[in-house]
TrEMBL record, chain A:
InterPro entries: BP-dependent_transpt_permease, MetI-like, MetI-like_sf, OppC_N. Pfam families: BPD_transp_1, OppC_N. CDD domains: TM_PBP2. One of its GO terms (cellular component) is plasma membrane. GO terms for biological process: transmembrane transport. It comes from the Bacteria. This is ABC transporter permease. The keyword Transmembrane helix applies.
TrEMBL record, chain B:
Belongs to the ABC transporter superfamily. PROSITE patterns: ABC_TRANSPORTER_1, ABC_TRANSPORTER_2. The keyword Nucleotide-binding applies. NCBIfam families: oligo_HPY. One of its GO terms (molecular function) is ATP hydrolysis activity. SUPFAM superfamilies: P-loop containing nucleoside triphosphate hydrolases. InterPro entries: AAA+_ATPase (IPR003593), ABC_transp_ATP-bind (IPR050319), ABC_transporter-like_ATP-bd (IPR003439), ABC_transporter-like_CS (IPR017871), Oligopep_ABC_C (IPR013563), P-loop_NTPase (IPR027417). Gene3D superfamilies: P-loop containing nucleotide triphosphate hydrolases. The keyword rRNA-binding does not apply. It comes from Vreelandella populi. The lineage of its organism: Bacteria, Pseudomonadati, Pseudomonadota, Gammaproteobacteria, Oceanospirillales. Keywords: ATP-binding, Nucleotide-binding, Transport. Residues 25-286 form the ABC transporter domain. This is ATP-binding cassette domain-containing protein. GO terms for biological process: peptide transport; transmembrane transport.
Amino acid sequence: MTMTTNKAPSRLDRFRDSFVWYSFKRDRTAQLCLAVFLCLVVAAFSAPLLAPTDPYDLRQIDIMASELPPFWIDGADEQYSLGTDAQGRDLWSIILYGTRVSLLIGFGAVILQALLGVTFGLMAGYLGGRVDAFLMRLADIQLSFSTLMVAIVVGAVVKATLGGAFYSQYAVLMLVLIIGLAEWPQYARTVRASVLAEKGKEYVDAARVMGLRSKRIMFRHVLPNTLSPIFVISTVQIANAIISEAALSFLGLGMPETHPSLGSLIKAGFDYIQSGSWWITLIPGAVLVVLVLSINLLGDWLRDVMNPRLYKG
Amino acid sequence: MTTQASAAAENHIPAENIETATPLLQIRDLKKRFSLSGDFLEQLRFKGGKLVRHQEHVHAINGVNLDISRGEALCVVGESGCGKSTVARTVMGLLSPSEGEIHYDGQRIDHLSSRQLLPYRKRMQMIFQNPYASLNPRMTIQQTLEEPLRLHHPKWNRQQIADKVEEVMRSVGIDPDWGKRFGHEFSGGQRQRIAIARALAVDPEFIVADEPISALDVSIQAQVLNLLMEAQHERNLTYLFITHDLAVVEHFGTRVAVMYLGTVCEIATTATLFAKPRHPYTQALLSSIPRLEDDRPQHIRLEGEVPTPVNLPSGCVFHGRCPYANARCRQEIPLLQMQNDGTRVACHAVEEGRL
């Protein structure tokens, strides 16, 4: 018998024994991606410490130092390692701050999506019948509005009622709201599908026979067993949300230029790309690509690891 | 028609039987249909230039009457798809009946809301077929066993709950030290013991066991069966035991109900049924038990297959395969009739003395 020792394994021990950790130890791509991603996150959130200037502080901006090239090109000022943008802001500082804004919006939007999507998906899958039909039609309708349209509508309504200044002030919150509202159906559908699979299992019947309320069965019994697909979809959705935010900002529907995200930086530099100042667009662009790529590759790895067809457990 | 049928059937039960001992569980004319036609829009069909609503149902149970007295183990046998599990799940309120009533201890329970049903949940519990699916993979054994206690004894403190969990784990032969482990760390037999412990934790008086040993290894089956019998002896339990294993029935049951295509065709005490099966289907079923002493088994071979429960045959559901069927069997649904030894049989041939 294998259970001769009666000491129960702790959570850490179980993680060390798990297939996730085993697979991570052997997968160089996943390790590299996690390292890059963590570097970006740490750099972004310690921006006030790392950045030589505060790009939000107008007093530190010198308009005479605008459009300076990065250090490896002639004419660079060594004070600005990656050059400056059209307003004379230090590109390195503003990329750090911009990455922070992008990550905040990405994570915030995904948390909102997950809250809405998981709740609706659980209810649709577990309660079934009319609740299911109603919520899934709602999801279909929501999906037929693109993120862009939601952004235009919300932006127009907020700007018209509360004014442009208000919108700029709460732009991060607005974008979280827009991207979160526009893309919850992805979660709802995934969760519903796995809830339908779990609902047929006998442990759910056992919980019902016990007399537990639907709410408790949904959140305590069914939800923990649908976590793997939620995990996998979350990585993809964070990358998607960051890209959506960049796209909205590029179109002028997102972050204002005073508090730029990576997307608004790309947009701001886009006007100068023809005049030779390519770095204003391309360097934030490269950061965005690396960020999204590392998240997507991590998501791919996670999907392989958690795919029950490849590995059962 | 069916309500009349059941009324007629009940008339054959001697009056003193009903009055002296109110059965713990009474199932009256239970019917359960499952729709095959999807939602309203999918049901609409064009027929002869008109839109008509077309519905199809699987008739899983068609008018089942069963009484279960305190302290007995009523076994329900029948082949796959005959509705035994549906009866079990309907009794436990996992499915709501399409027609008919279920009475527990004299109270009707089939129409109660889940909150009104809560006191009954403590008195009746269920053991499931597949021990690999009936334990939540994300919960430890301790959590699994504590959950029903927390729900049904909200006033108990931590120590009382822990003591009860330990007691119930010991009573099913599981070491209480294993409580911090997860279901997948146990073997099938151990998991089924844990599932039994979960059912016993709230001290029920009635247990529905839906093929509790059929997913287990043969060497483990006897252990779990003995555990169930011990529990019955110690806790004075009443069982509704669903199975298709006739050897188990002979060992375990006090009475047996034989089901075929959603109807009960014979109810008898175990000894009577095995000694003297009356219904042609029961006879065929019992003749199929492999016996060591036979070198030339005398199986009764039934022709054809079980008819589809979507379009039920007219008359007796068994008439298409019954060697004794006549014109009456093809038209009239037979009712359960009391025989002189207490057996109840639903068969025209038995009633007419042709068999």
